[in-house]
Amino acid sequence: MGKDGGGGDGLEVPLLKRTYYHGNCPGCRLEKRNETRRGVPYTEFACMWLVTVCSTLPIQSLFPFLYFMIRDLHIAKQVEDIGFYAGFVGASYMLGRALTSTLWGIVADKHGRKPVLVVTLIAVITLNTLFGLSSSYWMALTTRGLLGLLSGMLGPIKAYATEVCRKEYSHLALSLISSSRAIGLIVGPAIGGYLAQPADKYPGMFSQEYIFGRFPYFLPCLCISILAVAALISCIWLPVSFLVP
């Protein structure tokens, strides 16, 4: 930082301030907008909050009903084996994320943060829905593993949060990401526990003969996928942050 010597008011100005912007660079336009825009970007923050919550909901939403799901899929030969098979399904999501998180970070640096967010939400919409419709153990294991492989937004969303606002609001942006993830990890299991097996819990509303009776774990997955659709639509209001070097 340097001193502004023009008026003697002692204001500090950045020494490495960008002086040239590429005309076709969305990231340059975003930087230029941040320089002139004052105040908190509430729209972008709200959209990022929704995107992060919806992408976090599937992480733990299955655990309240996972034992019963494995039991109903009849993969375990005896009751004592249910936990063994449930462990693989529960771990498959995080295994997928561990394998591809670095790759998604590279993709976000090369092609922008927003495409990674969109891919993650599309994966939640499709694969989480298919998980609720699982008719076999291997289908459940595969859909959860693929969902983890395609959920690469944890790193990019933090970088994106600091790019869509002025530097003085970056701490607020990062705190919103942390709080939204915490909310998703709380609400996800609540949705799973409350809405699983609806035909048994709420026979007056759901029939055993229809889809929610034949697929007792579909309703919580469907609700999360619907929320993810809303988050995907909200991405329309998120600017592209890819920078031309």
Description:
With 245 residues, the chain is mainly alpha-helical. It has a single domain, classed as MFS general substrate transporter like domains (Growth Hormone, Chain: A). 66% of the residues lie in helices and 2% in strands. It has eleven helices and two strands, in the order ββααααααααααα. The protein has helices spanning 26-36, 42-60, 66-73, 82-111, 113-132, 137-149, 154-163, 170-195, 198-201, 211-214, 218-234; strands at 2-3, 12-13. Strands 1-2 form a two-stranded antiparallel sheet. Helix 2 packs parallel to helix 5 (113-132) and helix 5 (113-132) packs antiparallel against helix 7 (154-163). It is elongated. The chain crosses the membrane at residues 47-70, 82-104, 116-139, 173-197, 217-244. GO terms for molecular function: transmembrane transporter activity. Its main location: membrane. Keywords: Membrane, Transmembrane, Transmembrane helix, Transport. It is a multi-pass membrane protein.
Short account of what is shown:
With 245 residues, the protein is an all-alpha fold. Helices cover 66% and strands 2% of the residues. The longest helix has 30 residues, at 82-111.
Helix content: 55-70%
* Outline: elongated
The succession of helices and strands, N to C, reads: EEHHHHHHHHHHH
Q: In which order are the strands of the major sheet placed? A: 1-2
CATH-assigned fold name:
Growth Hormone, Chain: A
Average of pLDDT: 87
Membrane topology: Multi-pass membrane protein
GO molecular function: transmembrane transporter activity
Subcellular location: Membrane
Organism: Triticum urartu (Red wild einkorn)
